[in-house]
Amino acid sequence: MSLPYLGQQITIYFGSFLVVTGVVGNIINITVFASIRSYRTTPCTFYFLVGSFFDILYIMLNLVSRIAISGVRFDLTRTSVSWCKTRNFSLAFVSLCSLTCSCLATIDQYCATSKNISIRRLSNIKRAPAVLIIMIIIWLCH
Hints:
Rhopdopsin 7-helix transmembrane proteins
């Protein structure tokens, strides 16, 4: 058994496990954050909800294509320049958006628990979609 073959098998089986557990876990996050009424009124859970969508996109773009490359040995990034550029751009964009959603949730929790009333007012569910749209525009331009 050679080392490249072993690496392919690990990619196929462990990657498949990660795809299933990652997608199922993020779907559970989305279900919980979207179904409980008290969660829908806080900007922190809104950021985590959107971050879960970005996490699912990242898993599908990255892991599924790597499993296909290892399993079928057909690398579309070597034959299609447009797919190669689109995949690299999408992976960078989605991962940055996911990370930023977690950071925004942390900042929101700081604002929500501050002793200063003016800082507490920054934690507002009405501002969260606008902040998220600005974040997406910034990462698209990046």
